[in-house]
Amino acid sequence: MKNGGVKWKNFLLRDLFPTLVAGKSKGLNHIEKSDSGISYLGATNQNNGVLCFVSREDKSTIQKGNCIAFIRNGEGSMGYSVYKAEDFIATSDMTLGYNKHLNKYIGTFITTIADRVRGKYNFGYKRSANRLSKEIITLPVDNNGFPDWKYMENYMRNIESKQILSYLKMIRNGFSQI
């Protein structure tokens, strides 16, 4: 499929993320909240998935960043995904996808595409680990039919640059009227 000169192709999520692991935390009851702690991810589409910050004392529940956290449960947020650059603790309602090509730009690109499936899930039809692994994501591809990681990164960098320039222009115009 072509769109704007870019070829697109369907990929199974499990093929894009050779490492899919479940979140390790069973809930907040056993963890001390701490303003200076580590992000605690849960079933929310607000605050980039962060419910609160907690103590880092239980190192066995800390998970590596530079991944996409797919929300598998939670009415209203099931089907969403978030990119996490930093290490964090996640509930067992999340599955974490790792790919060596990820960075904040590619992660943001993929989460935007991946969030399109969220409408098919609800309380009676949950995003199980099995269903998640079979989800299809449509991504731009290179001439060899592989995901075009460079295109995704450059696309998101371009959007970021436009936003920064827009903010700078707004600030400059706002200050000149004072």
What's this model, at a glance?
The protein has 178 residues and is an alpha+beta fold. The protein is built from four helices and eleven strands; from the N terminus they run ββαββββββββααβα. The strands form three sheets. The protein has a four-stranded antiparallel β-sheet. A four-stranded mixed β-sheet has the order 5-4-9-6, with no helix packed on it.
Describe this structure in words.
There is one protein chain. The protein is of the alpha+beta class. 27% of the residues lie in helices and 29% in strands. The chain is built from four helices and eleven strands, in the order ββαββββββββααβα. The strands form three sheets. It has a four-stranded antiparallel sheet. A four-stranded mixed sheet has the order 5-4-9-6, with no helix packed on it. A hairpin with a 2-residue loop joins strand 1 (2-3) and strand 2 (6-12). Helix 2 crosses helix 4 (149-176). The radius of gyration is 18 Å and the shape is globular. The termini are far apart. 28% of the residues are buried.
The SS-based structural class is alpha+beta
Beta strand %: 25-35%
Q: How are the strands of the biggest sheet laid out side by side?
A: 3-10-7-8
Mean pLDDT, all residues: 89
Question: Shape from CA axes?
Answer: globular
Helix content: 25-40%
Biggest sheet character? 4 strands, antiparallel
Order of helices and strands: EEHEEEEEEEEHHEH
Q: Give the N-terminus to C-terminus distance in angstroms.
A: 51 Å
What's the tally of helices? 4
